[in-house]
Amino acid sequence: MVLLYAVSGYVCFAVMGYFLVSVLSSNVHDRSVEAAMTSAFVVGPLGSLIAIVVGVIRSGRKALGPGAAS
């Protein structure tokens, strides 16, 4: 389930990052390349990490400690 959150978080944040960079960037020469690289290598992975944390919290699994029963 956490993997599903991670992949969907990456895709959602990468698409959102692409459009935000393409709209807000002052770069005129290669705006599309800047948007693609930023979304693929910065915004997408950050979104994936955020989605992983949300997935772990929402899954409700408790970690088994040293004294926990299996």
Describe the protein in words.
- There is one protein chain.
- The chain has helices at residues 2-24, 31-59.
- The chain is 74% helix and 0% strand.
- It has one domain (2-59).
- α1 packs antiparallel against α2.
- The chain is rod-shaped.
- The chain has 70 residues and is mainly α.
- The protein contains 2 helices and no strands.
Topology (elements, then pairings):
Elements: H1 2-24, H2 31-59
Any descriptors?
single chain; 70 residues; mainly alpha; rod-shaped
Count every helix, treating DSSP H or I runs of 4 or more residues as helices.
2
The count of strands amounts to 0
- Unreliable spans are none
The rounded Rg comes to 17 Å
- Order of SSEs: HH
Strand content: under 5%
| Helical proportion, percent range | over 70%
Major sheet details: none
Mean pLDDT: 89
Overall spatial form = rod-shaped
